[in-house]
Write a structure and sequence with these properties.
With about 100 residues, this protein is mostly beta strands. It has no helices and 8 strands. Strands 1, 2, 3, 4, 5, 6, 7 and 8 form an 8-stranded antiparallel beta sheet that branches. The radius of gyration is 13 Å and the shape is globular.
Length: about 100
């Protein structure tokens, strides 16, 4: 882990690491254990989620899919979405523009 990475715990899943960001883009690594969630929410940022490890149930705009390592999902601006961790893992999120509420 780099010393300049912002690491924080969240109320519903294990850890969020702000890896890099500028005004137009942000990269966030989220660590989950089985049963952790990102409850239904939405934001104006466009989001792409990539699964490098683990198994997750994503619900995006009412449609539920299971994502495994190597899978990704696109979440449009202000689209409601949620995540349930089915197997310990990591979700790598890219946001545009960056999530000002994370820093």
């Amino acid at each position: 882990m780099r010393d300049d990475v912002l690491v924080e715990s969240t109320p519903t899943y294990s850890e969020r690491r702000i890896m890099a960001y500028g005004d137009e883009m942000m990269c966030v690594e989220n660590t989950f254990v089985v049963g952790d969630t990102a409850p239904p929410h939405h934001h104006p940022n466009i989001q792409i989620s990539y699964i490098p490890k683990g198994k997750f149930e994503f619900t995006i705009n009412g449609e539920t899919k299971v994502l495994n390592p190597g899978d990704s999902a696109y979440i449009g601006s202000d689209v409601e979405h949620s995540v349930l961790c089915l197997e310990d893992g990591i979700v790598l999120d890219l946001f545009t523009p960056m999530r000002k509420d994370f820093v």
